[in-house]
Design goal:
The protein has 19 helices and eight strands. The chain is α/β, with parallel strands linked by helices. Mean pLDDT is 90; it is low at 189-193 and 319-325.
Amino acid sequence: METCGLTAEYNPFHRGHARQLELIRETFGRDVGIVVCLSGPFCQHGVPAILDKSERASIALNHGADLVIELPQAFALASAERFAEGAIGTLRSTGVVRHIAYGCEYPEDRDAIYDLAEFLADEPEELYDYILDGIRDGKGFAASRSDAVASLTGNTRHRAILESPNSILAVEYEIALRKQRRELKDSETDNNATFHEIKTVALPLFDKQIQSSTAVRQVISRTKYRTSVNDSAGTHSLLEVFRHLSSVLTNDSAAAVMKALAEGRGLVTEEMIASSLLLSPHFRDVDALKKINGMQGGLAERLCGSLRDDPLNVLRQEDRTSEHDSSLPYDHFIREMATRTHPASRVRRAILAAAFAIRSDDTALCHEGPRYIRVLGFTRRGRRLLSFMRHTATLPVLMNASDVRSLETESARRQAKLDLYAQALWNHYASLHHADEFKRNPLFMK
C-alpha cells in the first residue's frame, strides 16, 4: 500500500485542509493510506486547540485521512525546529509512512527548499557567526538567519522561503528528515536496523488569505469574549460567526464549532485560559522562570516585571472588541511583550511552558524525540495500517491512555504526564468536567 503522512493542527479544519487531503489522493492514487500526525490540546503557536482532538480527528477521517495519531504535547508546543523533529519522528516511527507531504507558500520552489535544508542540516559554523552579527545589530533571530543564509548561499529565494511561516516549517521538516536519516543509517550499520527512505511532497496553500485558521480563531475568540462580557451580544455574535465559518470551514467543522459555541462547552480560546496561565507561580520567581523552556534571552525578566504586582491587571482593560479595535486583553498583552527577539508565538509558547512547568532540560524534550505513538482514530484502511504497524513500528503503539502505564523510560513517562495534564486543563476550560482521558478510545470511521 502506498502511504503518505502529514502533520496538522486543524485548528480548526477548513476547506483548504480538505483540498490538501484530496490532492494527496490525486497525487498517489485513491488507495493511498494517509496518516495524520495531529497536535493535541495545545498547538505550536502557543494557543489552545479550539476543538477537542477527537473532534478534529473525526473531521479529518471524514475528509480522507485514514489514521490519525497524536503528536506529544512536549513537541506540539515547541519551536518550529522541535515541532518538526517530533512530527517527523512520530511519522517515521510508524514504519509504514513512505512519503510526507507539507503545505508551503512556495511549492514550485521545491528544489530551493531542498537545497536550503541541506545547507542548514550541515550547520555550517560561519552561519552562526552571521546570525550573531545580525542579533547584535538589533535584528531578531528569524531575520538574522534569513539574511545570513541569503548571504552565504547567494540565493535570494532562500530569504523569501525563511520569511514565510509555512515554508519555514517545510524547511524544518526537510532538515529533520535529513538528520534522522543520518542517525538511522548509522544505527543500521551498528545494529542491523531496517532503514527506509521517506520522500517528500510540497503542496500549495489554498486561498491562504481567506482560508486561514488564525483568522478563524480570531473570529471565534472575539465572539466568545463578547458573549462572556455581554450576554445580550450572544445572538448577534453567533449569527456573525456562522456567516464567516460557513464560508471558510467545511460543513462538519463549522457545525462542530457552532454546536460548541451554542452549548457553551467543548470549545477553548486563549482568552478563556489567560488568567490561569498568568497566575503560574513561576512568574513570582525570575530565577525559576529563566529555567523554563523558551524563557531565555531576557523574556523571563520582561514577563516578571509586568506581572510582579498584580498578574491579572493586564487583563483588566476596556473592551477591545469594538469595530475600531478588535484586539482582546490577553492578545493585547502578548503583543506588548513581543519584540523582534521574542515574537508573539514564542511568548505564547513560553507562557504555556511555564504553566506546564516544562524546563529547558526537561526529560520530555529528549533528543530521541517522541517515545510512543498515540492512536486517535482510523478508517478501514487505517486499521490495515495499524495491523502492519504491529510489525513495523519502532515505538510502543498506545490505543488509549491506560497504555501509558506500560511505558518504560523516564522520558516516555514524562511526555505522557504532560499530555495528560494538558488534556485535563483543556477539558476544564471546555466545561467537560466529566471527561476521562482514560476512557477515550480511538475513533473508528467505516
